[in-house]
Amino acid sequence: MTTPSVAEAPTSAMGPVARPAEDNPFFSAGILGAAQKHLGDPTVTIAAIADASGDVIALAPVRSTPLGRLIPAMSIWVHPHGPLGTPLLDAGAIDAAAAGLIAAMDGGKPGQRILEFPYLPLAGPVADALRHQAEITGRPIAVLGAHRRAMLKRTDSDPARFQQAISAKKRRELARQLRRLGELGTLTVEHVSDRDRLAAALEDFFALEASGWKGRRGTALMLREPEKAFAKAAVAGGDARIHAIRLDGRAVAMLVSFTAGRSAVTWKIAYDEAYARFSPGVHIMLEASVALLADPAIDQIDSIAIPDHPMVDPIWPDRLEIGTLVIGPKGGGLRYEIGLALARLELNLRALARRLVRTARRKAGALKAGLRRSPSTGSPPG
Questions:
Q1: Which of 253, 233, 234, 235 is CA-nearest to residue 243?
Q2: Which of 19, 86, 104, 145 could connect to 47 by a Cys-Cys bridge, CB 3.0–4.6 Å?
Q3: DSSP states of 165-190 as a string?
C-alpha cells in the first residue's frame, strides 16, 4: 500500500528512492534543492510516495501548469537548465510507484486531471509504467514533441570504443587539430571531481563561457545571478565533474557533467573562440565522454542537447527518444482535446520561429563575411 502525497518539506529532508528504475541527476537531492531555491517558484512542490514501511518509492517535483497555455493541468517540473523530467520510481515497486505518483498529481480529483510528463525518455521502464497505469484506469495517452537526441551507451570495457563509429576522415581531422593545438604550448587535460577544487574550476568555466557568444548574447551563467547561484549550489551539492583542456594552464575548453546512479549528463560546455579552428568543443566532449565511461559505475551519458546537434550528433552514435507524455482524465473529453491541439500548435510555431531565427543568423553571418572580404570603396589612387 502506498501513501501518495505532495510534500512541503525541503528535498534534502526526504529519503531518496533507493533503486530508481531510471536515474535523473537533476532530481537528486542536491541539484533539485538548488533548483527549487534559485530557479523555482512557490508553486513547485515535491510529490513523494512512500510504501507501507515508509520507504520513498517515487519522487518528483510538480506544479500546476496550463496545457497549451490554456487548459489546467498538473506537470512534472522541468526548468531550462535541466531538460530531463524522468520521475524517480523504485525499480522493485515500479507499478505501485507509478500509481502513487499519478494519484499524488491528481490530488483531490482522482482520474480527473490532465497530467504532463515533459522531457521523458519514451522507451524506458518509467514511461512504460506510467502508460500501463493510464491504460488500466481508462485514461487516454498522448505524446507531444517527440524527438531524438544524442546519447552514449557503454558497449564494453573500452571507454573509447564509441569513437570507432566516427568516420575515419573525421578522426584524422580531429587528431590533426589536436596536434596543431599542442604545438602552441603545453596541452593538458583534467577531470576535476574533488570538492575542494570544483569551486575554482567552476569559476574558470564561468569566465570561459562569458568570453564567447553566450556572453555577447547575455545568456552566460555568470551574467544571470539566479542561474549562477544555481550552478554553484548544484555543483556543490550534486555529483559533479568539471572537465578541461588547458593550454599552458589556460582553459581553452571546459565541460560540466553531473552523474547519478549509472547515468551521467553533459550539462554545460564552453570554449575559447580564439581557438575555434581546432574544434576545442568537440575535443572536450570526447575527453569527457571517455573519462565518464572509464568509471565502471556509469553505463550511459545523456547529452541533453537539441535534436540534430551539429557538434555532438556526429561523434555519439546512440540516440534517446524523448518527449512529453500526457495522461488525460478518464474518458478524455473536450478540454483535453483542446489542450492537446493548442500545445501542438505552439510546438509547430516554436519550430517555425527557430527556423526563421537560424536563417536570419546565417544570412547575417554571410553578409558580415562578405563585407570583410570586399575591397575598399575609397577613391582609387591617382
A1: 253
A2: 104
A3: GS-HHHHHHHHHHHHHHHTTS-EEEE
Residues 6 or more apart whose Cβ sits within 8 Å of residue 62: 6, 44, 45, 46, 47, 74, 75, 76, 77, 104, 105
- What is d(CA 163, CA 82) in angstroms, rounded to the nearest whole number? 27
Alpha carbon 207 to its chain centroid, in Å, reads 22
pTM higher than 0.85, yes or no?
yes
Q: What is the pLDDT of residue 339?
A: 98
Quick: pLDDT tens for 69-100: 999 999 999 999 999 999 999 999 999 999 99
Domain membership of residue 75 (yes or no) is yes
The CATH number covering residue 60 comes to 3.40.630
Position 379 scores a pLDDT of 37
Residues in contact with 221: Cβ distance below 8 Å, sequence separation at least 6, in sequence order: 206, 209, 210, 227, 228, 231, 268
Measuring CA to CA, how many Å separate 281 from each of 106, 209, 271, 312?
A: 44, 12, 6, 9
The closest of 116, 119, 120, 129 to 327, measured between CA atoms, is 116
Write down the pLDDT at residue 380: 36
pLDDT, residue 369, reads 73
3-state secondary structure of 152: strand
Handedness of CA 343, 224, 260, 42 (dihedral sign): negative
CATH number of the structural domain spanning residue 179: 3.40.630.30
pLDDT of residue 283: 98
Residue 326 burial class via C-beta count within 10 angstroms: exposed 0-12, middle 13-18, buried 19 and up: buried
What the block records as the C-alpha cell of 310 is: 551539429
Residues of the chain with confidence (pLDDT) below 70: 1-15, 372-382
Asked if the structure places residue 110 within a domain, the reply is: yes
Residues 6+ apart with CB under 8 A from 382: none
